[in-house]
Amino acid sequence: MAEPIVELRHITKRFPGIVANDDVSLSINKGEIFAVLGENGAGKSTLVSMLFGMYEPDEGEIFIRGKRERIDSPRYATQLSIGMVHQEFRLVSNYTVTENIILGLEPKRKFLGLLPYVDIRKANNDITELSERYGLKINPEDVIENLNVASMQKVEILKMLYREAEILIFDEPTAVLTPQEIKALLLVLDGLRDYGKTIILITHKLNEIKAIADRCAIMNRGKLVSILDVKTTSTDEMARQMVGHEISFTTEKKPAKFGDVVLKVADMSVKSITGYEAVKGASFEIHSGEVFALAGVSGNGQNELADAIAGLMPCSGGSVILNGQDITRASVREHIEAGIAYIPEDRHNVGLVLDFTLRDNFPLRQYYSPAFSSKGVISESAFNEHGQKLLERYDIRSSQGGATITRSMSGGNQQKAIIAREVDMRTPLIIFMQPTRGLDAGAVMNIHRQIVAERDRGAAVLLISLDLDEIMDCADTIGVIYNGSINKIAPASELSVDDIGLYMMGVGKTA
Amino acid sequence: MKAQKFTLSCLAIIISLLFGALILWLMGKDPIAAYMNLLQGSGLMEKAKYAGRQSMFTDFMSFIDAMTPMIFASLSVALALKGGFFNIGVSGQMMAAGITAHILAGFIPSRILVVIAGFLAGALIGALIGWLKYRFNVSEVVSSIMLNSILMYLITFYINTFYINPVSRQSKSIVDAARLTISGFRWEKLKVDIALAFPLAIITALILQWVLNRTTYGYEVKAVGLSPRAAYYAGMNVNRTSLLTMTFSGALAGLAGVSYFCGYLAAIQPGTTPSMGFDAIAVSLLGGNNPIGCVLASFLITVISKGTVYMSSRQHIEPEIASLITAFILTFASCSAVLDRRKKK
């Protein structure tokens, strides 16, 4: 019988208004890969954050190697040889790989036996050796800002290993990776287990757990639902327990009735902020009553494409035609007036003015119009009525109604507010950019229903998402973007998830 | 929200006054008497006795005279902050407005002209800062600080060369017909200073409050100031809004300049920038960057700065104690701004 290395007993953690963890008890054995599965907001991150000393539990006890510990800081967690790779990397971007890894634990030598300095050559050698041993190939002298995401993640892992961590926590490590990179990472995790490391893996991707984990704890709304042996449990069973009920992965929808072409994008090219050509000659059409879903791995030009259609970025070539009107060179406002609603990816910095009240955020793109102001003077009553209407019609929860400061609301309700604002403009084209990222299953379902409802109203919908389930769920037509070009366009019924996955990787590009 | 900001500002003031009291007490003085002297010196409390032609009323009127430029200056800072700019160059803008008005008044002695000249001169400097920001992405903090020095030395050079009063070693005085303060006006048996720009300051604060809260331009200023990317997404012309904000902020600083150098004072001191431009930052923070709040905060800070002359003569304390208390208030007011921001996260 394996010995438990981590033991949590009756852990409860409360945040204002919610119980993030409710009486959670579990034990993790040395040398196993232990997955924690749950939806967004199920309390997975909170639970492991307590192991890493970022929060302290309100109730309950933590035992490490059989000894009761009070982990009050990440520093102490590190002393207990616990390491963590966060979702957002914590690296100094203008330092080299080695400098980042040794930060705080620099091997020192003394010049003339007196003046201490960092022995960077020894450090580089150490890192090279470490990276080779664990199959994390990396050049120790590369500067972080020149690395891709997968390599940065390797640096984070090496950072833990350099500190001789035995218990390695990974918070959603695959969320930012491409399928190939995910495969490589899973291999690394497997190798780490062979070296006797204990791995705690937080994820909501069932197939990864199935592929690699030994056991899996399922959390739902802060409660531990069960601990399963991965080998003997089907992914369907895990999914059922994760959501707490049988989930229908599909949104009900009537067959699409396509109307006229609303949006016609022809041979569009867009330069990114840094000047390279992010979108290269993309062409597609969206009809009234059609959900056109654009799939693709993150960073293949989706942002630039969406921004360019909405007018936030200039096109460097090609044309964008909305209902027969050429809007290629129009301003942002002219795009809004031409009839494009846009739910942007970055809801905090772009979609909302977070320090505005909800009431002030609703007319953000229409405040100047006669409905909300006349001769430059704002109509407070129009702001109030509009706010009240949207709050009720779209079921947005806020503590003080329209007077709520938007920053204080939950992410799901913030997104609801943006969607309410944009959908309520009743425009012929609506662009949804990653509309459900970071939201829980209930909110996701709602947004999917809204997308389909807009289609049924007769709007043309452009849905851009990294989430293939979402695309399969909503799309009438699927386009796949790869490296700035649209690689494939086909009716949703003709493509399987696997097909799309291949096109996303650029397969069929030359065919 | 608003109530909370108000509480934080009050807290900052109270803590600062307690600190000040502590220092006074350590020096062996009576803090309560000292603070009462501040009020007396500002014409808010009756002094024990008055010199000829003076009374509590005349003290109060010269207090109003001192407060007027502070209101304009703090409004300038507040508007810039609302629009996402840190206008640290109010001093330079004040001087530029002051000297322009002085020169023009030498040709045509008219108060209206002085006000307009100050407004335009300040606006021009503000616009330059805004333009440097959006054309060359020069931080407004850097450019406005640099302009402070450039303007101060240019004006000093001009005054010392062409416009010096050899006795006072200051610039020549502006003619009375153009001065925005009627100094020593005989009323009954008193000599009263009448700040003609004071009503304009109050009206400006009210207008600014209305513009920020009730107009589309104000809505744009706030959106651009809080989140330029969201403002751009909303279809606003971010550059134009920023440029306008800095122009108006400069114009308000210009009004502060003329009500200071062509009103409260009649001349310009060469070789130094008015500290009011920096105090205005404290005042604006204390007032929660809200125009009405700025008026209230100006009132308070002016009580301290204006009343200090009387306090130091009565209590035999160095007048720097007033600056110290003001500095405390600035510190605590900016602490509360941080506190406020952290709460939101």
Largest pleated sheet of chain A: 6 strands, mixed
Question: Count the helices of chain A. How many?
Answer: 17
Query: Order of strands across the widest beta sheet of chain A?
Result: 6-9-10-3-11-12
User: How many beta strands in the DSSP annotation of chain A?
Assistant: 24
What general form of chain A does the structure show?
A: globular
Please tally the helical runs of chain B, counting DSSP H or I stretches of 4 or more residues: 13
Low-pLDDT residue intervals, each spanning 5 or more residues of chain A: none
Distance from first to last alpha carbon of chain A: 55 Å
Structural class of chain A: alpha/beta
Major β-sheet profile of chain B: 2 strands, antiparallel
Low-pLDDT segments, ≥5 res of chain B: none
Count of all domains of chain B = 1
Summarize the structure.
With 511 residues, chain A is an alpha/beta fold. Chain A contains 17 helices and 24 strands. Chain A folds into three domains: 4-243, P-loop containing nucleotide triphosphate hydrolases (Rossmann fold), CATH 3.40.50.300; 257-339 and 428-511, P-loop containing nucleotide triphosphate hydrolases (Rossmann fold, 3-Layer(aba) Sandwich); 353-426, no CATH class.
